[in-house]
Amino acid sequence: MKEKLTIVKVSGKIVENPVLLKVFIRSFASLTGRRLVIHSGSNLASTLADKISVRIKMVDSRPVVDAGTLDVLTMVYGGLVNKQLVALLQGRKVNALGMTGADLNIITSVKQPPLNGADMGSTGEVRQVNAQALSRLIDAGITPVIAPLTYDAKGGLLFNETDAMAAEVAKALAHRYNVTLIYCFKEKGVLLNIDDPDTVVAELKRTRYKAMREMDMIKDWFVNKLDNAFSAIDHGVSEVIITNATQLANLNQGTHIK
User: Fold this and answer.
1) Is residue 202 part of a domain?
2) Edge to edge, what strands does the sheet with 239-244 contain?
3) Would 257 be classed as within a structural domain?
């Protein structure tokens, strides 16, 4: 029987909010079994970019990762944010190890193709996850805390979109563990009415998701998260839960995809 592994992707909206981050750390530490965290970032990247006169260009809310932008993202996500999370988890007796995809050859990516005609620079799409190396850490009682940075296997760093990155890591580890993937962000789950936080869909099946998309009930920013969730299920992940930091300690809440 496979051991349980919980993979949590935590959003920048939680990471950048001291109150929600405190709740997240406490709730994550209460989860039983083996664990892994993948984090996105915060507005600190934009703040630092402004201070050092680096202009971050955006396309569809995603950064165009030129050389200057990659330096900033690496400093903030791979450095400050990652190590803050590690320190907070250690404070809760979670033996955490902060890393990027380049460390231990954990995650390799290729450069993302143009988005709406725009070259996204050093933005990566995951091509391989080193499940053996990750499982050695996990089985040793270590909780990997992975920043949204990978590499191209040739020495170049790449910045990754974290919903897809988390799904790819979950798929790779599903061969070794009974994996639950959790997308932890600002909402309580998938909402029937985006303006009403209490209209959570408790269980979302593929047919209902398709119908909701056809009726334009799923906002564009949520489609990527759900497409990755169903892809993870298709590749052996046992369950995907979409929830927020305040509900993380009670996984009966939120939206469940099985």
Assistant:
1) no
2) 96-99, 143-146, 34-39, 3-10, 177-185, 239-244, 255-257
3) no
